[in-house]
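Summary for the funding panel

The consortium committed to producing paired sequence-structure records for every protein in the target list. Below we show the first two records in order, beginning with the earlier of the two.
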Amino acid sequence: MTLTLAGEQQLIAAADGIALTAVDLAQVKQRLHAWVSELALALSAHQIEMPGTVRTAHTLAQQASEVNALLTTSAQVWGRQWEALEPARQLAQAFEGRVMLLVFGKFNAGKSSLCNFLADRFVAHGKPVQYFHVASGQIVETAEPLCEGAVETTARLQGVCLGANLVLLDTPGLHSVTPENAALTQRFTDSADAVLWLTSSTSPGQVQELDALARELHRGKPLLPIITRSDVIEEDEVEGEIVKLLRNKSLANRLLQEADVQARGRAKLKQMNVEEGVLQSAVSVSVHTARVQGATAQAVGESGFVRLCAALQSIVDPAQSYRQRKSAEVMLHHLEENVLGAIESHLQPALSQLASLLRQERVRLQDQQPRVVRAVRRQVLPEVPSMLERVAPLHDVTALCEEIAEVLHGALVHQVAHHIGDHDVRLPQERGSPQIGLADHPDYERLYEAVEERIQQSITQRVELAFAQCSRGLDALEVSMLALQDVLAGQHDSLMHIKRHLRNDAVPHSDAGEARRH
């Protein structure tokens, strides 16, 4: 048996040996359902309460209303997003018990060609293959191989079952020129247990492509980089004529490209905060060369498929581990990406904006308070001499105090409304204040000084009381905001605890798989 056939048969044996160990995920799923229900109730119970001192026209009130609207509608949005994932869940159920590999790459990366060639190799070893495509969310089996082309021909989701336990899911490129194709791929990526990242040897390792896989990589799905089209056209002399021949790139060239892609991929994953352990060792292949040379054992081996078979075999175990917890993972992904993701991208910025407006309002009030004091003084004090001239000769203390209190109250109401009119401040009129003893100041000038001093003291005190009302209202608003933030932080930590349990404890590790990897 040639080395090539042995390598292929080892891959086929690994695929045949895939067996789903029953794992009871009911408790984990119940905890996930309970978590989202608790979150919805908590958000409803922690609406931002605006204090009565802040009027509805205030930017703070408007921003609080925006936050509350998000709290009210969030649960409905989450429900619709969960329903939108139903096609992906149905697809996963259709292939339950099999390991599904998502074949990802930019259009013209050779995805369909690789899938078809691997199917041919399984057939060559007497294993059944079944091609299919997805139409209206249904699996449609077909006898036709996957469409191949120099431009993107994968206008629909398609794939092939290799033997009884392995599925290749060939998708429209996430960098597709057709927006509908990219959207189609995104809907079904949840179904995959691992990812084959195909990158052409003409420009290998374009790591920006991995941004489209960020969700899958953060989910811990293993990633195998495959450098395709690893061939060159060279001129040679055949029977006295110069002809162009397709040949594999040299092993040295392939190893250099693989090392480069590996380094690029590792750096990109670090930048994306993805665990480096998901990255498998890169391999190079040339489907076209293997086909042109008749798909003989030698041609298949020299085209890189012995090493590819070993790489695929090594990815089966981590993919199988993911598949065992997939039904719970799909819901976890939804809660992390759609629920917590919406909180982080919409609710938290709205809350941050509200907190920023609150800080700005505190600074503004602090700045306005002395201005109001000065404005009231400028309005009241010029009227003191005329009031004294009318009242002092009569020694009518009550009349003087009442007139001063009335003038002072009117000035306060006017200036407070002018400077902080978006706060509803209550300013009760204080009769008989400030108290002034005329008999103690028979001299007019000393009487005027005493009255002015008492008025200034009263202005300062009453303006402080007015602004204290505003501050108490802002304090109450801040308490409401902090309570909501505490709820959000607690719910985040709670979901992360469930996630750690699912990843580390809910699915037992395969000793056989560990032994095979080592």
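The next record, for a separate protein in the list, is shown here:
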Amino acid sequence: PEHRGDSVRVETSGRINPGPFRLSVLRKKNKQAVATFLTHPDDKGKGGWFLMLMAPPEADENAPKLKREVTLVLDRSGSMAGEKLDQARAAALQVVEGLEPDDHFNLIVYNEAISKFAEGAVEASRENVLKARKFINSIRVSGGTNIHGALKAAITQPPVEGTLPIVLFLTDGLPTIGVTSEKRIRENIAKHNRLSRRIFTFGVGVDVNTPLLSRLADDTRATASFVLPREKVELKVAQVFRRLAGPVLAKPDLVPVDAAGEYDSSRVDDVVPHDLPDFFADGQVIVTGRYLGKKPLRFRLVGDDGDKQRSFRFDFDPKGKRDPFVPRLWATRKIAVLTDALRDLGADTAMRGLTGDGIDRNDPRVKELVDEIVRLSTEHGILTEYTAFLARDGEVFRPQAERRETARDHYVEKAIRQRSGASSVNQDWNLSKQKIAGSLNPTNRFLNEDLVEEEIANVQQNADMAFYKKGDAWIDSRAISDEAARQPAVEVAIGSKDFDQLVDKLVATGRQSCLNLGTGLEVVVDDTRYRIR
């Protein structure tokens, strides 16, 4: 009642996914960080999945504000000539003009050599901003691409106390000068990044090492962005930089604790993301994971607000209502984490499809990761460019061993061996969406290697179940395993007493909507396979 005057407007222009619309409102009290939980229990009653929505605390007006130290690193190699350089200049000017007076900044441009605007970050005073304009407008292109040298110069410059150090790194090419090994660049940057500078990366065009840019960002609590050929550089940079306004909590850490406040790892598992991003004003952080047991538990969030370490407590009671989208959202993010690990295996291989260190589908590391991805993808109906084959031509109904072998071939050829070009850009573009997914993707849309959006037919996500098309019938994913497929289905006629009992069981778990898929439907209830006729 006290918020009777508040209203929410939902824009319905453009594409709308099917299903109900739910609004979760986070109400702040005393300017503290707040969180809300959505849950879904598993069928065995031993735990389930949770989704945690967190809003950051408001900064204490009497405490020093956490300011930013922003270093913009621009590629000026020969391939940046023309429109790319014009857009990069425009992006740099937007960033510099968007700084607060108490922020600090620096500019670094690179080809085979490294040039700095200043030895270290300077205050964003009007005088320094005017000087930065001249520096930006004087940038000219030539030479190669010394990615390692430019990154090292950015992360080893003298620190500015009391700031959140941010690097915005832009390149349109592969490393060609200095250290060029993907693995060595990552290792060296991790070694020298003693101040934990966040490295937000921007890959312009398709001639970039996309796994390198993605991992540099992920390893530093940042994000990677890829500017496709039809997109504008300055818009992508501006979108990211706008989200970085007003940092309120740096180096956040979220852990489950017991009643005494001690770390308790026995109640929570498979939390994604493992490392939280920094909290910014008006932002939201989404965490997904698995919970064990039925008793209430507690999370503790700690972080640095620029003045002191702050701590917040969130109580979680898993006895909430069933929210069937929660496990699917968790699985979406989990599949992205596992795919990222496969991409990492290719860091030592030669580029453009050569086998390099000999990684193939029989490598035990590949087998473990891909087999788990196939299990999650099949169970939840979450298919990607690597596993789209499962929904085509009845491939999902082939023996499990054959499905896994085909998937391993796809991951080796694409995820591991493709490190640059359009067929690599699309992979990391898709992964970046999956890692931060905050809504479902019911049609399994993804960007293909032609950089065109594609959808996958013959699979339906329904409640917390997935169904695959077989002829005119839809088959529950739980009936697809080799063991389940050997068991005869119990036929149930619509309108019969057995059908009514089956409907009651589906209603009890919120799964009755699957009946819309029509006759021929095969659904698993209480470990029994039913065919509706």
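Regarding this second record: The chain has twelve helices and 23 strands. Confidence is low (pLDDT under 50) at residues 350-356.
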